[in-house]
Automatic annotation (TrEMBL):
Pathway: Purine metabolism; XMP biosynthesis via de novo pathway; XMP from IMP: step 1/1. NAD(+) binds at residues 247-249, 297-299. This is Inosine-5'-monophosphate dehydrogenase. InterPro entries: Aldolase_TIM, CBS_dom, CBS_dom_sf, IMP_DH, IMP_DH/GMP_Rdtase_CS, IMP_DH_GMPRt. Pfam families: CBS (PF00571), IMPDH (PF00478). Keywords: CBS domain, GMP biosynthesis, Metal-binding, NAD, Oxidoreductase, Potassium, Purine biosynthesis, Repeat. GO terms for molecular function: IMP dehydrogenase activity; metal ion binding. Belongs to the IMPDH/GMPR family. GO terms for biological process: GMP biosynthetic process; GTP biosynthetic process. It catalyses: IMP + NAD(+) + H2O = XMP + NADH + H(+). Homotetramer. SMART domains: CBS, IMPDH. K(+) binds at residues 299, 301, 304.
């Protein structure tokens, strides 16, 4: 039996080229996540419950990447997380929150805290605009039983815009009228949207962020391939999610292929990333089923024990090298998922043919990852766990198995608290930009033309700092 050799990131290096790049700022890191979604940086945060919920997804999108909200919760909780990201910034809020004229100030305050929103359009049927109530209206009102209708700015005093108003005209109206909110209505005064000064400011300040056509941050969400997956996919789509990511350990399976077909049939305009796979045939089958991106990685994850539990897997660099030509031929971007330990791995993954990398472990333990930091011997840590670890399997909403019936393919770990995720991203991007200048690559596509060489154990030893006592 012929047994081929397969390589992982540490087995190779890239050969430097004569570089015409004068500064690391001259390189462009934009790339495709899927056929129709582009990102400004090639980093995606993993759909793990210790990595990506709305806080991480917001931070990732603000940096120019994207976060994929995990699915280890009921549908409404996942939808809620997606909505939090989509509401973080917009140019036009399409479906603004409203409050009834007969609500009391106490109810206003309660709703305000619950929704994290300090002002509401006033409407009794949710459609006709009757007024607006903002933080300024309530600030000096001490009586909590006061009705909204008695403190709101009423319809006849409202400044409103039409739904087709341009951002520049909206800015002018906000400035000239010294207001912070501009409700958008049709000729019958039916609510059609809301533009706020804060949103316009946010949008013009963060040009680097990943945004949709309405200026809202991009976000993805994971779905499974069994049970309520279609209901979940539909609910997430209605919540405004930009991309659905199939979350299944063995993506080259009838279950996954069927789920992709069902989702694409029901939601033809939704971008779907299929995976995980580790072979060219896997990519071909998922592409034929209709995916808009493929996710590659069987067993490289930092918390993953699939390979030692099952004996199956493909070292990640070879998996990417084998699949990339198929993805290129069909114009379907490749997400290299798992196994990134340092910025060199990101550079190697992209040079091997990936368009983005998905990172879990490296982004866990950050300020934005879910869960509190815990103290251990005077240091702060956060928990990182595999989604097929024992505790994750036991805490699934639909879990019926007892602990002794579960064969884990992941572990639970303690990771040092790392501070804001943007610092980690900055370190990775710094390494990528430097790498691109060694490879004379102004773009990620040019990086793919670089030559790999295999190294030996002594080459590996030489690569890291050596013969020092590291401080
Ligand atoms: P990391 O960046 O090396 O930590 O890898 C993250 C990736 O590991 C995720 O995006 C998943 O594809 C994968 N993964 C997450 N949980 C598990 C698990 O329990 N077993 C195997 N792989 C996992």
């Amino acid at each position: 039996m012929y047994i081929p050799t397969a390589l992982s990131y540490d087995d190779v290096l890239l050969v430097p080229k004569k570089s015409a790049i004068k500064s690391r700022h001259d390189v462009k890191m934009n790339t495709q996540l899927t056929k129709n979604i582009s990102l400004k940086i090639p980093i995606v945060s993993a759909n793990m419950d210790t990595v990506t919920e709305s806080t991480m997804a917001i931070a990732m999108a603000l940096e120019g990447g994207i976060g994929i909200i995990h699915r280890f919760c009921d549908i409404s909780s996942q939808v809620h997380e997606v909505k939090k990201v989509k509401r973080k910034q917009n140019i036009v809020i399409g479906n603004p929150f409203t409050i009834n004229t007969k609500a009391t100030l106490a109810e206003f305050k309660e709703r305000s805290t619950e929704l994290g929103c300090s002002s509401f359009l006033v409407s009794d049927d949710g459609r006709e605009l009757l007024g607006i109530i903002t933080r300024r209206d309530v600030v000096f009102c001490g009586d909590d039983s006061t009705l909204v209708k008695n403190i709101m700015t009423p319809k006849d005093k409202l400044i409103v815009g039409s739904i087709n108003i341009s951002t520049d005209d909206a800015k002018k109206m906000l400035r000239e009228n010294k207001i912070e909110k501009l409700p958008l209505v049709d000729e019958d005064f039916q609510i059609k949207g809301l533009i706020t000064e804060k949103d316009i400011m946010r949008n013009s300040n963060n040009v680097q962020a990943s945004k949709d056509k309405l200026g809202r941050l991009l976000v993805g969400a994971a779905v499974g391939v069994r049970g309520d997956y279609l209901e979940r996919a539909v609910a997430l789509t209605e919540a405004g999610v930009d991309v659905l990511v199939l979350d299944i350990a063995h993506g080259h399976s009838d279950n996954a292929i069927e789920a992709i077909k069902v989702i694409k049939r029901a939601l033809p305009n939704m971008e779907v990333i299929g995976g995980n796979i580790a072979t060219a045939q896997g990519a071909l089958d998922l592409i034929e089923a209709g995916v808009d991106g493929v996710k590659v990685g069987i067993g490289p994850g930092s918390i993953c024990t699939t390979r030692i539990t099952t004996g199956f897997g493909v070292p990640q660099l070879s998996a990417i090298l084998n699949i990339a030509p198929v993805c290129k031929k069909y114009g379907v971007p490749l997400v290299a998922d798992g196994g990134i330990k340092q910025s060199a791995d990101l550079v190697k993954a992209l040079a091997a043919g990936a368009d983005t990398v998905m990172m879990g472990g490296q982004l866990s333990g950050t300020e934005e990852s879910p869960g509190p930091a815990i103290n251990y011997k005077g240091r702060q840590y956060k928990i990182s766990r595999g989604m097929a670890s024992l505790t994750a399997a036991l805490s699934r909403p639909d879990s019926k198995e007892k602990h002794h019936q579960i064969t884990p393919e992941g572990i639970e770990a303690r990771v040092p608290y790392k501070g804001p995720v943007k610092n980690i991203i900055a370190r990775y991007l710094g390494g990528l930009k430097s790498g691109m200048s060694y490879g004379n690559a102004k773009t990620i596509s040019e990086l793919k033309e670089c030559q790999f060489i295999r190294i030996t154990n002594s080459g590996m030893r030489e690569s890291d700092s050596h013969d020092n006592e590291v401080l």
